[in-house]
Amino acid sequence: MFYSNSVDSPNLFVIEPSNPARSSTEDLCQLIVSSTTDLWRKLHGCGAVLFRDFDIKTPEDFEKVALSLLPTKLAKQYPGGAPRKKLTERVWTSTSFSSYMPIPAHTELSYFPNIQPSYIFFYCWKSPEWGGQTPIIDMGSVLKDLPASLVDKCRQKAMVYSMLSTEKPQRFFDIRLFQWPWFRKSKTWSKTFDSDNPDFVEKKCLATGQQIKWLEAPGKDLIVETKAQSIIQHPITAEEVWAGFSPLFHIWGMAIEALFVTLHQRTLRSFVVLFLLWLVTVIQQIFICMCNLWNYIFKDKLNLPSWFPGNRKILDVCFEDGTSLRPCEVFWIIKAYWKNTTIFNWRDGDVLLLDNKRIGHQRLPFKGNRRDICTAFAK
To answer: How far apart are CA 344 and CA 325, in angstroms?
Structure first.
């Protein structure tokens, strides 16, 4: 086996087989076991390691590879709320999102610091016909490229993230649920927590530092809030890094991300998506202003129904003192993400390992019938 620099990036270390006859799943597992110390050194030095041109054919093969490096640390339950399908005991699909929609950059579960995985594996089961890359982002460099005013604010105040999980699947007029030609249904809290017992959900949330609020009564719709620092120290290297704020939590995040995606891909479809996302976001913002005005006038005397556009947001973020993150600040963050991004094309059988405390990731829109990317998480 030999180390390759086939991807030109200081943040991505590529390992390829020198002999095609020694490229099986078992060969890769043996390589990992015999080179574990060196692999960890490379990972913490670069942030990402890509195993390329090995004969990894199924999610089961991928699970074996991940277990060879972290035999006792792979998660058996995904702790987040993103829509995923479980494929094996420790392997899930990547986030299910429409092919024409971007997923903004983030570190996995940065908004749940107590349960955030330290490492994340990706496996390309079937590469897309076009696009669909998983760009990686150096969060140490992102911090250096953010405006000093925003960095100072984030040092002084943590961010508070809130997520709405419903009792039953519901459609909301929310940009995060947009799926042409309308909006997809919300994820229920029973699916998110893999339990229909409200007491179990409460105990699980409180044990991991999350605050919960049942709307109307226990077992109804649920809001989960968590507080997280935006700037952290890497637990191994002690480097100060940006924690990986996800723009998806901000109402303007998707529209701003689509702008950068359009400038990168420059396709007719990306321009159409950009227009639609900005249109929907502007309409939602207008509805939110209407709801705020209604609540200011009528206080708690006359409440709008939950289905009214703008009355509820599936995701939200603010600073701990209640002040909002301004759209221009979200723009600065996304701009810094794109400035420090490494983009490579997937090949069938690729296995990517990320240091989730230092390297973020995103997903670009793609074309084709399939894009099968699998994931595994390690704490």
So the answer is: 31
